[in-house]
Amino acid sequence: MAYVQQTSSFESGFTDRLATSVKVFFERVGTHIETYRIYCQTLTELEAMSDRELADLNLSRYDIHRVACEAACAK
């Protein structure tokens, strides 16, 4: 005996929208993780610099977080 399963267009549409939503969610999570990784890398590199090296870049220790944020958001 053959078994036939029919899905309504509502169920099919719902499944498609759900799959799209999940895909978009994980793409956004991936984007945020990449942005945070760039922020942390930039922050680590700037914090490792001496005050003299930062001054050569026309930065102070106060500017480090702002510059790291700008670097991460500019990608």
UniProtKB/TrEMBL annotation:
Pfam families, per database record: YjiS-like
Domain named YjiS-like: residues: 36-65
Protein's recorded name: YjiS-like domain-containing protein
Organism of this sequence: Tranquillimonas alkanivorans
